[in-house]
Amino acid sequence: MSEVKIAPIPDLGQRTDEITIYAGPCSVESAEQFDEVAECIADLGLTWIRGGAFKPRTNPHSFQGLGEEALKIMKSAGDRYNLKTLTEVMDSAHCQLVADYVDGLQVGARNFQNFSLLKKIGEVTADTHQMVLYKRGFAGTIAEWLAATDYITDHGNTNVVLCERGIRTFETATRFTLDIAAVPVIHKQSLYPVCIDVSHPAGQRDLVPSLAKAAVAAGADSLMIEVHPNPPVALSDGPQQLTPAQFRELVAELRELAAVLGKKIV
Ligand code: PEP
Ligand code: MN
């Protein structure tokens, strides 16, 4: 009889009493813009900054991101402010480039079932075990999400965070419908930490604080929140981004809520 092999799971089960916030602008637009957000995040004692370098825009004539220039801006701000960096990779051809510049790689909702991209990310991070934040697609079920996660982990990197970012329903009052139940369901069915992106389902900044508090209350392991120094002039997702002042206020509230649950915001 052949021996049953159990794959080693070195990074699994990283759920802790810490709630990580991945904050930062939707798009990296300039060094000045990114630094202003980095300074705010570092000043709050947080650990990660996000930013878009390659943007998956619905319309090809919309701002597509600064590409490698944005990666350089992120690296330099990350080094200067001692923050870990997270950005989306959209194309298999860019996986190594992106992995060379940032700490964490994001798979966007539009690439939920881009299996060749998921495989490539798994290959590129097999040795580094860089964090992969894998977003749910607009119309993806949790079962499909968990199944496809294996495309990333099959090469040995199990350092995956599953990010719920809202799904498509008949409701139009919000940009997407936030499936808050994804948190307990995924916690029940896997050991992966769950992130709730509160900005993309909200679509409008005044809804963001309520969704963020709901995510913490539901047991989310991390939150994604878009922050821009001057949202009205943002090159993408202006209406949903918080100003640094609004973000500070929200983090203070989330810290109080987290403390009640015996958790810490980092
Ligand atoms: C983003 O995080 O900026 C983004 C494009 O997200 P999503 O893939 O969830 O739309
Ligand atoms: Mn965005």
UniProtKB/TrEMBL annotation:
It comes from the Bacteria. GO terms for biological process: aromatic amino acid family biosynthetic process. Keywords: Transferase. InterPro entries: Aldolase_TIM, Class-I_DAHP_synthase, DAHP1/KDSA, DAHP_syn_2. GO terms for molecular function: 3-deoxy-7-phosphoheptulonate synthase activity; aldehyde-lyase activity. The keyword Ligase does not apply. Residues 17-256 form the DAHP synthetase I/KDSA domain. The keyword Endoplasmic reticulum does not apply. Coiled coil: none annotated. Its EC number is 2.5.1.54. This is 3-deoxy-7-phosphoheptulonate synthase.
